[in-house]
């Protein structure tokens, strides 16, 4: 069982970036999939989730209306489209899988991928 996040990089403020999460050994269609981030020197925080049953989504207030989570069940992938990026979005981003309903807490997620780093310059 493995999740692998990729697609991070350096982007200027106001720019866009799409993160991808490839799953193996676990079907993204059977889990609630989430994105978290850990800014430098801070705790890991919830960013977005997509529910397994009805594909409802949820976002933190700090990214709502700028980020969009989606998934492709056929490819077993989850994506995070990030628009209008701000320097405060700089962090290591992680994808994770949960069997809970609409989980926003770290401890509700059972499977974690390695992070991908996003740096937003001002």
General description of the model:
The protein has strands at 2-6, 9-12, 17-24, 32-38, 45-50, 57-59, 67-72, 77-82, 91-98, 111-112, 116-121. Strands 2, 4, 5, 6, 9, 10 and 11 form a seven-stranded mixed sheet that branches. It has a four-stranded antiparallel sheet with strand order 1-3-8-7, with no helix packed on it. It is mainly β.
Give the topology, please.
Blueprint lengths: L1 E5 L2 E4 L4 E8 L7 E7 L6 E6 L6 E3 L7 E6 L4 E6 L8 E8 L12 E2 L3 E6 L1
Parallel strand pairs: 2-11
Antiparallel strand pairs: 1-3, 3-8, 4-5, 4-9, 5-6, 7-8, 9-10, 9-11
Notable characteristics:
11 strands, single chain, mainly beta, four-stranded antiparallel β-sheet, 122 residues, seven-stranded mixed β-sheet
Summarize the model shown.
With 122 residues, the chain is an all-beta fold. It has strands at residues 2-6, 9-12, 17-24, 32-38, 45-50, 57-59, 67-72, 77-82, 91-98, 111-112, 116-121.
Count of beta strands: 11
| Low-confidence region ranges | none
What radius of gyration results from the CA coordinates? 13 Å
Helix content: under 10%
Average the pLDDT over all residues and give the rounded result: 95
* Helix-strand topology string: EEEEEEEEEEE
Class by alpha and beta content: mainly beta
| N- to C-terminal distance | 38 Å
């Amino acid at each position: 069982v493995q999740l692998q996040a990729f697609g991070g990089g350096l982007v200027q403020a106001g720019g866009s970036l799409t993160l991808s999460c490839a799953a193996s050994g676990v079907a993204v269609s059977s889990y609630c999939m989430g994105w978290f981030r850990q800014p430098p020197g801070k705790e890991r925080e919830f960013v977005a989730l997509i529910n397994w049953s009805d594909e409802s989504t949820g976002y933190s207030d700090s990214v709502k209306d700028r980020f969009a989570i989606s998934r492709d069940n056929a490819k077993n992938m989850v994506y995070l489209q990030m628009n209008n990026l701000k320097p405060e979005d700089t962090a290591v981003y992680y994808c994770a899988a949960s069997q809970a309903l609409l989980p926003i807490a770290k401890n509700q997620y059972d499977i974690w991928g390695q992070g991908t780093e996003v740096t937003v310059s001002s």
